[in-house]
Amino acid sequence: MPSIVNGGAFIPLIPTAPAASESPSSFVVTANTFFLSLYLMVREVNSVLIGISITALPAPPAAADSGFAGSADTFVADLPGLVTDVNAIISTFSLPCSSITALPTTPSRGGDPVNFPGRAAAEVAALPTLRTQLNAFITALLAYNPNSTRFDATGVHWDSTTHTWDAG
Amino acid sequence: VRVILTGLPTSLTITGPVAESLPTYSGGTTYGLGDRVLATDGTTGFEYIYESASAGNTGHSLADPAWWIPVSAANPWRMFDQVASSQTTSLTGSIFTSFTPDQITNTISLLNIVGDSATVEVVVSGSTVYSRTISLSSAGDGVTDWYQYFFGNIARRTDALFTDLPSYAGQQIRVTLTGTNVAIGTLGFGYGYDLGTTTELSVGIDDYSKKQADQFGNYQIVQRAYAKNGSFTSVFPAERFDDIAGLLPKYRATPAIWIGDDDSAASYIYGFYSSHRVKRQDPIATLTLDIKGLT
């Protein structure tokens, strides 16, 4: 049975998502931080889960990486999986937050060039919502804490031996 | 630097390109001015398009310029005409070309192409002995940050070069160009003759577009074909001086595919050399080539 252990782990909230309205130099900085945060968030969330997890994202490409586009293609292509997996966790633990809205079809620079501009624009436009919903998920997950008052108030029982939840 | 004197395909099969919806020439038919017909070349087996130059055109030979104007090769065979800018096109998907070369072939060059990827296979006695695919996406070129990733322009490579084919006797070569809207300007094949290590190259174009100013200074611009040109310098051991100096005159006034640098598609030029100079300075020799491309 899936469970959450060490619910008090520190999972930082996702910072500002990049926006098409930003200047190129600003966009680069915001996007670097944002995508790195998604990558780190997955690792941290997985560290508090047993029996269920988010499929690991690859590390986002570093600036000036000669294979940047290929690595970025891989990273972006894995984001829908992140959404699916987070939604499964929300559902499994009935976390008090909305499901993550599905991302649009992801862009790939290696795909048909005709499709890329529209998909890239839609992807960038979806990132702020993704950020907001992920932060709600992180907040709900952290509140789902065996040591928190909120947990005590709900009456759900945390078995510190088996590290599993039961209904109390 | 490398040169390929491209040959003629035999046992040719082409699938994918749209066939021309034109009637085949008939000596008993009367054609009007501007009527177009198809005719098969007896030597190559390629189909060509001809246009009637006059009304009342009956029974005149297609070789008679007073009555017929050669327009171009028909769509499937344009990849083998001597015009780099005219393309064999497919609007519905891949183009597959299978042929037996008429000469030793270790190099395939695909010029002025549109597609997602290009694959070359060598089949001998039914067994595939070589298969290699080159992605035509240049979408990652120069992309070093997320802004360029999302908002940078995407281009496709328009040339692909395969220089490492095994040279079997009786080999069948299969070339597949994949994509949605696929096109190929020139499919060149033959022996890639090594002309030394490139030390310097420059490339450009000769633009045949019309740009004419009227009496008010307003330009009328008509875009027309262009031809690539280039200058290559290479070095090679002085022992090959006679070899290379003796080879190049054989290539005079002959369309060939000139490769300035294997890794630089911009340096692939289908054309002829306008001048060359081979200089010996033991222990090395230097070759300087000026290439004029075909449109």
What are the salient characteristics of this protein?
heterodimer, A: 168 residues, mainly alpha, two-stranded antiparallel ribbon, two-stranded antiparallel sheet, 4 helices, 6% strand, B: 295 residues, mainly beta, seven-stranded antiparallel β-sheet, five-stranded antiparallel β-sheet, 24 strands
Helix and strand arrangement:
The complex is a heterodimer of chains A (168) and B (295).
Chain A: E1 3-4, H1 24-47, E2 49-50, H2 68-92, H3 116-143, H4 149-154, E3 157-159, E4 164-166
Antiparallel strand pairs in A: 1-2, 3-4
Chain B: E1 2-4, E2 9-15, E3 30-31, E4 36-40, E5 47-52, E6 57-58, E7 68-73, E8 88-90, E9 95-101, E10 107-111, E11 117-124, E12 127-135, H1 146-151, E13 159-162, E14 172-178, E15 182-184, E16 186-190, E17 192-194, E18 197-207, E19 210-213, E20 219-222, E21 226-237, H2 241-247, E22 256-259, E23 268-281, E24 284-293
Antiparallel strand pairs in B: 1-17, 1-22, 2-9, 3-6, 4-5, 5-7, 8-15, 9-14, 10-13, 10-16, 11-12, 11-14, 18-21, 19-20, 21-24, 22-23, 23-24
